Amino acid sequence: MWLILKREVKNYIKNPLFWLGIAIGVLIVFVNVNPYLKIHYWVEGETIVNDEPDAYGDRDVFNGYVPTEEDLRREMWEERIRETLISVFRMDNEEAQAVIDEMKEMDVMAACAHLEKYGFYNAYYDYNDTTIRKGSPEEINSYIGGKLENNAFSYYFSRKFADFAGVFMGFFATILLSALFMQDTRKNTYELLHTKPLSAGSYLSGKVGGGFAVCLITLAVLNLIFFGICLIATRNSGFEMEVNLTDFLLASVIYVLPCVLMIVSVYSLISLVFKSPLPAVPLLFLYIIYSNMGSSNGEGIFGYYGRPLAIMVRFPGKFFDTAPPPMILLNQSFLIFAAVCIFFVSMQIWKRRRV
Fold first, then answer.
1. Distance separating alpha carbons of residues 265 and 334, to the nearest angstrom
2. Separation between Cα atoms, residue 174 and residue 281, nearest integer Å
3. Distances from the Cα of 3 to the Cα of 24, 214, 340, angstroms
4. 152 and 242 in contact (C-beta within 8 Å)?
5. pLDDT, position 300
6. pLDDT tens digits for 73-107?
7. Which of 65, 100, 190, 236 has the fewest CB atoms in 10 Å of its CB?
């Protein structure tokens, strides 16, 4: 087992394409997490240059936005509704205000249903856009300070890192591990292996362990690089002491590694069933697409809420409000359990095909 594992790791490490893939991964992840590295405490005299609308749902604190208070949010939403009724639905000021007055005693959902009578079907999306608003430097600093009282900066940043690193690792592992069983599933080699006094457990543990170890090395390199980048970037932000390596490691272990283990296990099963790892490539790409698909919640709002046995864990929310999908720990546990079951099924297939 250990000889096979070491051989696989050495073969990958010696391949320049492996390191090229890691370099591409660093670039991809950096481009996506770079905006969050610009978050900082605003100092006296520093001004926010922002020509964006007062409220816009997909902006974040690094754009100069803070969460909107509930009473102000309703006020901002009604003002947007009034402007739309005038500009799009060609109502005059009195007619638009009359519609707003009719909504005053209604909750948001009831008000949205009421607006549909006038042909206004996007009111709830406008309400979502008012979740944040432009903030003053003092409001931004207060918001950041309040969030950092609960958790370190790296706690939030590591989740965004795990989001984009997990996507990269999914594609990287799918491409990288296509060669894991390639040599062994060639006809002459495959038959020769089955004549050797090599147990199914030892062989598959070595191959699966080798593939997983290579992905683990890749993820470890990404963790160290982005921990260092985060540490350097926050030096002048006012919270350089809020960066911990353990946050990166925990996020990777919980949200990324179970997904990688599942990919390696699928490769072992498909390679032995079809005597070739290549059929696993399109299957895993479809699996990634399934895992990365959004869905609608109980209120009909489209977003990412996670899927059963998904091999992607996304954190698409605002930086300081990133939260894992519901029951994600249970899903990750099921992934590990499913990967172990697939491993044992692969062992049985190997045993049945011994000469």
1. 13
2. 6
3. 30, 15, 21
4. yes
5. 55
6. 888 888 888 888 888 888 888 888 888 888 888 88
7. 236
